[in-house]
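S1.2 Input.
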Amino acid sequence: MSRSLQPKTNDPGPFTSRLYLAGFIGGAAAIIFLLSKVLLVIFASILFAIAICSLAKPITAFAKIPHAVAVLIATLVVGIAVAWPFMTYGSRLWAQFDEIAMDIPKAVNSIKTSLEAHPSIQFLEQIMGDIDLSKIAAPAATHLTSIISSVSTVIAYLILLAFGGVYLALSPDLYVQGLLRFTPLNYRDRVQIFIERCGASLRVWLTTQLLVVLINGAFVGIGLWAFGIHDAAALAMLAGLLSFIPYVGTIIAMMIGGLATLPQGTTFALYALVVLGFTSIIEGYFITPYIQSKTLSLPPVVLIFAIFAFTILFGTLGIILAAPLTVVTIVALETFYKPRLV
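S1.3 Output.
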C-alpha cells in the first residue's frame, strides 16, 4: 500500500506569521524612535509645503502661471512677510530682544535674592537642616540658559524645513505617487484617501492657527503698549509666535513676559501677566472656539493629553508639533480604524 506524498509548502504558519509581524512592527517603532527628530523635521517641512501650496493655488488661478512659478512667488511672499518686521523695525526689535535677554537673568537673580532674604525661607532652612531652599530658583536659570543655547539648533532646523518644504511644494504629486508605490496594493486606495484628508485637515488647521497668531500678537501688543511696558513690540511678537503652540505656548509667553518686565517693577510685571492672561482667555474661550466651529475642531482634553504624550516622546519638537500630529492621528483613526458593531 503506497502512501501519497504531499508536497511540502513554505507556509510559515499563523504563529510564525504573527511573530514576523510583531518583529516588523517593533523594528519599525524602534527606527521611528531613533529617527524621531528627522521624521519630525520632515513633518514640519510637509506643513510648510501645505502652507506654500495653499498660497500658490490662488496665485496660479488668478495669474494663469505654472504651479512651480506660483510656489516660488508664494515662498517670496512668505519670506517678505516674515522679514518685514525685522527690515522695518530691525534695530529696535533686536535692541528689545537684547534687553529681554538681559532682563530675564536679572529677574531670576532678583527672585533668588528675595527667597534667600525671606524670613519664611530662612525658617524652613533652619528646620530642614542641610536643604538649601534658596536654590530653588537655580533650575529656572539653568533651563533658561539651555533654551538660549539651543537657538542655533532651532535656526538650523528652520532653514532645513524651509528648503524641504519648498522642494515638496514644487511637485507634491511626485512625492505622493512615490509613497504610494511603496504601499501594498490592498492599502493604496485607503492610503491615498488618508493623504488627501490629512492635506485638507492640516490646511484648515494652519489657517486657523495663523489667525490665532495674528490676533494674539495684536492684542498683546496693544495691551502692553497701553500699560507703558518696555519692549512691547518684541514681547507681542514672541507671544504671537508662541500662541502657535496651544496652551503650552501661552504659559511660556507669560513666564517670559513676567520675567522680562520684572526689572521695570513688580507692578509692570503684573500688568504684563494680566495682559497675557486676559488675551489667552479671550483667545482660548472665544476666538479659537468660534474659528474652530467654522473649520476644524480639536477637543481640548484630547489636545492637552496629546501635547503631554508627544512631549515625552519627542521633547521640544513634540511640543511644537503636537497639535498637527494630533490632527494626523485623528484622520488616521477615521480612515484606517473601523470598529465592529456588536
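S1.4 Remarks. The first helix runs from residue 13 to 34.
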